[in-house]
Amino acid sequence: MTDMSSELGNRLRAARKGLNLSQAALAKLAGISQPYYGQIEVGDREPSPEVLRKLAKAADTTVAWLLDGVSEHGVDCAADQRMAVLNDPLVAAGLRALAEDEPMCGVLEISNAEWGVLKSIQMTFQPDKEGYLLLLHAFRHVERLASVGRLAKPRKQRD
């Protein structure tokens, strides 16, 4: 395993988790087998250029980001939405406070999709930073329930 394949695997994993996909689901989208994908993600195998393009497309990212961690604009893609929050003068104060807490954002690994959801929430009141943390937790909980199909069942059939 090389450092490059390890970093590629880490970025693939981050992109996959940001999309709330399993290894099998992302592999299927890319047209490769799950075992092969798993080997790429853990850094045991390096994909061909063609497979790398397919993985980037399936993971809704770019080959440049998978290889180097930068977008075509030279910006760290993981920080795109967080930076959009920080640069938006109209963003809610609580969301800005969360975005300014870089160590917490790193620990929480807030995806671009999650930043987008938090930014798009319209409320009659302005939650503080802790309120946005609760909203993030609730969003992740709903996403987990949806991923296991619990939200699709009628209420009487739920456990």
TrEMBL record:
Q: Name one Pfam family in it.
A: HTH_3
GO molecular function term, any single one: DNA-binding transcription factor activity
Signal peptide (UniProt feature, chain positions): none
**CDD domains, per database record:** HTH_XRE
Q: Which InterPro entries match?
A: Cro/C1-type_HTH, Lambda_DNA-bd_dom_sf, TransReg_Diox_bact_type
Example of a GO cellular component annotation carried by this entry: cytosol
Q: What is this protein called?
A: Helix-turn-helix transcriptional regulator
What region holds the HTH cro/C1-type domain? 12-66
Q: Which UniProt keywords apply?
A: DNA-binding
Q: Does the keyword DNA damage apply?
A: no
